[in-house]
Amino acid sequence: MLPFRKMQGLGNDFVVLDARARPFALGPEAARALADRRRGVGCDQVIVLEAAREPGTAAYMRILNADGSEAGACGNAARCIADLLMREAGTDTIRLGSPSGVLHAVRADGNLVTVDMGEPRFGWRDIPLAREVDTLHLPLARDGVSDPAACSMGNPHATFFVHDVSAIDIPRLGPSLETDPLFPERANIGFAEILAPDLIRLRVWERGAGLTLACGSGACAALVNAHRRGLAAREATVMLDGGELRIAWGEDDRVRMTGPVAESFRGEIDLDLPAFASLAA
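Predicted structure:
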């Protein structure tokens, strides 16, 4: 039996597996089986905690989307894992390895955790895009939405600015935009409504997971892209379907995200089940 934790940040939920003491290889098929909300545990992403790879870090966080694909960043998961590791170590600060680099996290008031998500990148190769275009105004449009801005927060994001986010049929538009030829590695697609310079309403179609209740890296990208367009300040509350995140793009060019974390339940996976047989090797 393989223990797991179910954690969530604003409803963006994760199955967390600990491979630090007992390493195992989690492939796409097993990740899809775990993420299946009818036949598995159910989640947006599967998180595998591995032994630290960088000096001074507590662990390495591997991220797999619900479709089994690897992800480069996940802000809500980073907060959850940071909270778990800080509780383990009895500390209020932690450094966590991830595919997009080392993340520094600190405990804020209550059950809030702040994660330094690093510096956004704007070069077309960095995002990446298929060809050289202006990343502040992508030549991309679908059914009434157009002119998104793009950046990388460790994973590719395109943010559309709309007048009424509730009027956008995201489940219909999301799959086509995610897989547009402009995005060779697919992209997370955000739809942002600017309510005030310090208040943004956001919904995100996540690459490999679909429409989620919250997307931490998407909230960071929305604030960054909105400020680049002159639509928002360098700090704002981002309202997602699952709740609120506080995003600050500091003068040091680093983006810090603050939000809640929660552990929903714990359980065990039966490794005799065919879908998980590869984990028992």
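Summary: The chain has two domains: 2-117+261-280, 141-253.
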